[in-house]
Amino acid sequence: MRILITNDDGINAPGLAVLTEIATELAGPEGAVWTVAPAFEQSGVGHCISYTHPTMIAQMGERRFAAEGSPADCVLAGLHDVLADNPPDLILSGVNRGNNSAENALYSGTLGGAMEGALQGILSIALSQYLGPDNVGEPDPFESSRVHGARVVRQILEHDRADPGYRLFYNVNFPPVPAAQVKGTRVAAQGYRHDTRFSVEPHKSPSGRRFLWIRGGDQRAATDAGTDADLNLKGYISVTPMRADLTCHATLDALRDRLT
User: What pTM, to 2 d.p., does this model score?
Assistant: First the structure.
């Protein structure tokens, strides 16, 4: 199997090293793993592409490239430049340092890379490691994704189907616990953290200029039972199938009746 990997934490991020291990195991001795990852951290850029300026790309090693762009840029570079003559069978994005459950998925560059892969017609999976009191201070906070990642990807590969139209991609979040405490894997809808939002925190520089830092919401805020973040906080790996189609299909008929 030929696998392209990327991330949004940058080419030197520890989570990318974990993903390289996962991808190497999946590819097997007859396969190959190619890395095209951002030269610098791109967290929170979503599905951004560098449409108005060029993206510099540099080879860092064998089958390893850094691009000065977003994760979606990196996927485009991988598919249409680095691997233009022989596209990959699978795209993996991550392993993100922090969860991309619930509303975090909407901001995530990790998900943006997987979404672009799906729009290009390639099976794509985003992997993220939830952090919390039980794992953030451990020697290997990525242990649950490192140990269980290849197995979960294999399960998705066994059951994925390529329907016409917008292709499915998958959002996988590993719980904030050591690998031995993972309770299993559950397919789950995207959750919503009630009563918590992203916000800003003002600061002044030594020169007196005013700056704003973006602040995330409470990552342990409750979501509906059985949704991704709820299951993650209960010790489960969540797998959420997604599409780039943003249409609210449940509302179409009612709104059509009112507007025609």
Answer: 0.96
